[in-house]
């Protein structure tokens, strides 16, 4: 479904050029859920942004569903296949657009018909009743906003969802609801996920495999079972897992 | 031993167009020389409790309590002049995000020495030495460089350590830390916690550690208060957290994904209206 080979992403020009991602490679099979973990600045979100064309300064190969993508431009077909959900539901919805407008605009852009029926179906599928259709973001809680953001991503009927820390701005009880919703949607629709998170327990819960990143490089790829069993190979991954699992007084 | 801080029936309310909103509804606890965790979700009133103790609730917000005492002396609704002498000197607060809490156009050194000189009346040279010592105490390797740096020139983890250094320079008796590590990576987080832990032990400080992270509080603190809708619904020793009895605490614990316990579906918290007002079963200090 998604292949990334020798991906370099950089910002700025020499001598101030910053290499955010260096020689990252991984591939995600159709229907799989793949995690990218690492500390701030390790380049995990940057990879997602390069895939969707939000960053143009990259080299290497990115192939989505067998089709290579280039530069910053993405075809209509790409957006029908790939959609993204962002970290902060308070920032990713237009404050003056109602839920109805957010969804109908997306559906129009995707050239969909029967918009009215589709909006109702989308709201149902993310567990928001029809009563939410004409609300504005400020009338919604954080979890409800993230549901709207997920509904917007689903509007194009994509097969690959890029999830950038989808629950890190939410309370734990709301996080559980959103993670359950994402699991259900993946099962019902056969979606493929690439999920970025700093929370190893969330990734172990949601993903089949994951890559550990540090300073722009993929340090190690492992199945989620290795994360749970603590059988990571590299020293860095082991240290990261130990530090996340518990606080040990020095 | 008498407590450092004693609170009884603390209430914080804000007038709104649709009536009075009670952010904190009768919180009572005693703080000794210990690490007290205050846990709850957004809107549970945990941060507002911390702000009320420091006298930082702005009008039209109102703070009332049957008792709010620091070392046996009432600090409830003190005039701002009096409060300013206490704040920083005897009770200090570390906020969540150094990006928004440090002055961006003032060097780190000036920010640390400003508060210290105000409260101690020391000379500029003594304050500078104190600041460098504090930066070293929070394990900043190159204190001279950081002293002269502006906030944008240091990392988030360093910024948080700078904040702790700044708050601890006047040697307060109580430190209120509001989500001090939420914006930090795990490796830096553990370092910052170690520093706070050491300072609590070495200086006999009382620490109020406000957090939404149950696991962290369970591992780091001595005692935990769980807040829901402006009230403390359960109080227990931190190492007993996994044996919590209140359904809200249990619900929070169960909704967390865990590395050591894979589940197909996460448990979802079913909120009960009764949690807002039901009798609290955990004994509070002095049997209140």
Topology:
The complex is a heterodimer of chains A (250) and B (288).
Chain A (H helix, E strand, L loop, with lengths): L1 E10 L6 E11 L4 E5 L6 H9 L5 E7 L2 E3 L6 H6 E4 L13 H11 L5 H11 L16 H13 L5 E5 L7 H18 L2 E6 L2 H7 L2 E6 L2 E7 H6 L5 H11 L5
Parallel strand pairs in A: 3-8, 3-9, 6-7, 7-8
Antiparallel strand pairs in A: 1-2, 1-4, 4-5, 9-10
Chain B lengths: L4 E12 L2 E13 L3 E5 L6 H8 L8 E3 L2 E4 L2 E2 L5 H7 L4 E4 L3 H4 L6 H13 L3 H14 L5 H5 L8 H13 L5 E5 L7 H18 L2 E6 L2 H7 L2 E6 L2 E7 L9 H9 L18 H4 L11
Helix pairs in contact in B: 4-5, 4-7, 5-7, 7-8
Keywords:
heterodimer, A: 250 residues, alpha/beta, Rossmann fold, six-stranded mixed sheet, globular, B: 288 residues, 2 domains, five-stranded antiparallel sheet, 11 helices, 23% strand
Would you write up a description of this structure?
The complex is a heterodimer of chains A (250) and B (288). Chain A is an alpha/beta fold. Helix content of chain A is 37%, strand content 26%. Chain A has a single domain (2-93, 160-245), classed as Rossmann fold (3-Layer(aba) Sandwich), CATH 3.40.50. Chain A is built from nine helices and ten strands. In chain A, the strands form two sheets. Chain A has a six-stranded mixed sheet with strand order 6-7-8-3-9-10, sandwiched between helices. Chain A has a four-stranded antiparallel sheet with strand order 2-1-4-5, with helices on one face. In chain A, a hairpin with a 2-residue loop joins strand 4 (58-64) and strand 5. Chain A starts with a strand and ends in a 5-residue tail after the last helix. By secondary structure, chain B is of the alpha/beta class. Chain B has two domains: 5-90 and 172-287, P-loop containing nucleotide triphosphate hydrolases (Rossmann fold, 3-Layer(aba) Sandwich); 94-171, no CATH class. Chain B has eleven helices and eleven strands. Chain B has a six-stranded mixed sheet, with helices on both faces. In chain B, strand 8, helix 8 and strand 9 (206-211) form a beta-alpha-beta unit. In chain B, helix 4 (108-120) runs parallel beside helix 7 and helix 5 (124-137) crosses helix 7. Chain B is globular, with a radius of gyration of 20 Å. The mean pLDDT of chain B is 87. Chains A and B meet through helix 6, helix 7 and helix 9 of A and helix 8, helix 9 and helix 10 of B. Chain B: Its main location: membrane. Chain B: Belongs to the ABC transporter superfamily. Chain B: This is ATP-binding cassette domain-containing protein. Chain B: It is a peripheral membrane protein.
């Amino acid at each position: 479904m998604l292949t990334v080979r020798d991906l370099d992403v950089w910002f700025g020009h020499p001598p101030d050029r910053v290499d955010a991602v260096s020689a990252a490679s991984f591939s995600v099979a159709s229907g799989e859920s793949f995690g990218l973990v690492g500390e701030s600045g390790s380049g995990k979100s940057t990879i997602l942004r390069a895939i969707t064309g939000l960053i143009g300064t990259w080299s290497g190969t990115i192939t989505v569903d067998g089709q290579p993508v280039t530069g910053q431009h993405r075809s209509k077909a790409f957006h029908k296949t790939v959609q993204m959900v962002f970290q902060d539901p308070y920032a990713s919805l237009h404050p003056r657009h109602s839920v109805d407008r957010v969804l109908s605009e997306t559906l129009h852009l995707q050239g969909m018909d029967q918009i009215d029926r589709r909006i109702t179906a989308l709201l149902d599928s993310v567990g928001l009743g029809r009563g939410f259709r004409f609300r504005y973001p400020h009338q919604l809680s954080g979890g409800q906003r993230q549901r709207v953001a997920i509904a917007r991503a689903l509007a194009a009927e994509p097969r690959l969802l890029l999830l950038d820390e989808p629950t890190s701005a939410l309370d734990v009880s709301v996080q559980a609801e959103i993670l359950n919703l994402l699991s259900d949607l993946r099962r019902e629709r056969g979606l493929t996920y690439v999920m970025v998170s700093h929370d190893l327990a969330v990734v172990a819960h949601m993903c089949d495999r994951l890559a550990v990143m540090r300073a722009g490089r993929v340090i190690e790829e492992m199945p989620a079972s290795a994360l749970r069993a603590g059988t990571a190979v590299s020293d860095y991954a082991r240290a990261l897992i130990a530090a996340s699992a518990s606080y040990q007084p020095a | 031993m008498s407590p450092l801080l004693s609170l009884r029936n603390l209430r914080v309310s804000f007038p709104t167009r649709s009536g009075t909103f009670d952010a904190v509804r009768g919180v009572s606890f005693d703080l000794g020389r210990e690490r007290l965790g205050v846990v709850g979700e957004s809107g549970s009133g945990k941060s507002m409790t911390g702000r009320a103790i420091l006298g930082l609730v702005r009008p039209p917000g109102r703070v009332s309590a049957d008792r709010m005492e620091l070392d046996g002396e009432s600090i409830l609704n003190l005039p701002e002049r009096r409060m300013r002498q206490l704040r920083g000197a005897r009770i200090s607060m570390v906020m969540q995000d150094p990006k928004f809490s440090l002055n961006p156009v003032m060097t780190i050194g000036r920010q640390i020495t400003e508060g210290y000189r105000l409260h101690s009346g020391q000379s500029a040279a003594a304050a500078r030495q104190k600041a460098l010592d504090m930066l070293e105490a929070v394990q900043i390797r190159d204190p001279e460089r950081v002293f002269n740096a502006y906030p944008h020139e240091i990392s988030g983890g360093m910024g948080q350590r700078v904040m702790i250094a700044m708050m601890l320079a006047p040697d307060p008796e109580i430190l209120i830390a509001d989500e001090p590590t939420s914006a930090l990576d795990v490796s830096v987080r553990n370092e910052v916690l170690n520093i706070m832990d050491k300072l609590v032990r070495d200086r006999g400080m009382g620490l109020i550690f406000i957090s939404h992270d149950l696991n962290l509080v369970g591992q780091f603190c001595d005692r935990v208060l769980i807040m829901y809708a402006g009230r403390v619904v359960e109080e227990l020793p931190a190492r007993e957290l996994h044996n919590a009895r209140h359904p809200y605490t249990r619900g929070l614990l169960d909704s967390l994904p865990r590395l050591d316990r894979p589940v197909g579906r996460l448990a979802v918290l079913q909120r009960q209206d009764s949690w807002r007002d039901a009798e609290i079963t955990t004994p509070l200090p002095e049997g209140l």
